[in-house]
Specification:
Blueprint: H1 6-22, H2 28-45, E1 49-51, H3 63-71, E2 75-81, E3 87-91, E4 96-98, E5 104-106, E6 110-111, E7 118-122, E8 125-127, E9 132-133, H4 139-144, E10 151-154, E11 160-161, E12 175-177, E13 182-184
Parallel strand pairs: 1-2, 1-7, 7-10, 8-11, 10-12
Antiparallel strand pairs: 2-3, 3-6, 4-5, 8-9, 12-13
């Protein structure tokens, strides 16, 4: 009997984590905790230009944080998913439309990640070594490959795991934010 491949292990873990999230009710205290952790991180780093994401479904909520960032004069770029498998970054000014996967994406001027102080990425889980488990389409792995940008993933407290399966194309993160903590793995660049 052969051991399961990392791809199979990731598929199983994604299914388990997605099922857990599907049973979660929205909790404003969790959203507030995420906002506070991210705001403190951006303030400590004097961030002026960040990339973030709009939450979909039961993803950890970043909307309060995005509102805080914009009120603080921080430029916020948000991704738009392209059919090519790439992310296009847009300067967010509050307007959205439905994207190719059926969730809200920003409308605005296309920009690049050049000069970004911090990338805030969604994840299903992050392990103790900074390995991020995404949804499996590879959009963020491709967007971050070869870039020397500080990346922070956002997960719920119980999604900070001991280990997640890793493949060569997976891009690690420098830190993770949960509603109750910031964990820095290799130091933020």
């Amino acid at each position: 009997m052969s051991a399961a491949s990392p791809t199979e292990l990731k598929r199983e873990l994604r299914a388990d984590l997605s099922a857990r999230r599907a049973n979660m009710a929205y909790d404003p205290d969790l959203a507030d905790g995420i906002m506070r952790q991210l705001a403190e991180l951006c303030s400590a780093r004097a961030s002026r230009r960040i990339a973030c994401y709009l939450p979909f479904g039961n993803e950890p909520d970043t909307e309060l944080f995005i509102d805080w960032a914009m009120d603080a004069g921080i430029e916020v770029l948000l991704p738009v998913s392209l059919a090519s498998g790439e992310l296009q970054w847009v300067e967010y000014e509050g307007e959205t439309e439905t994207g190719i996967f059926g969730f809200a994406e920003p409308v605005g001027k296309v920009d690049s990640l050049d000069g970004i102080d911090l990338v805030i990425a969604p994840a299903l889980a992050v392990d103790q070594n900074g390995n991020r488990l995404g949804k499996g389409k590879g959009y963020y792995d491709r967007a971050l490959e070869g870039k020397n940008l500080p990346v922070v993933a956002v997960v719920y407290d119980d999604e900070l795991l001991e280990a997640v399966p890793v493949e060569p194309h997976d891009q690690p993160v420098d830190a993770v934010v949960t509603p109750s903590q910031l964990v820095i793995f290799a130091g933020l660049k």
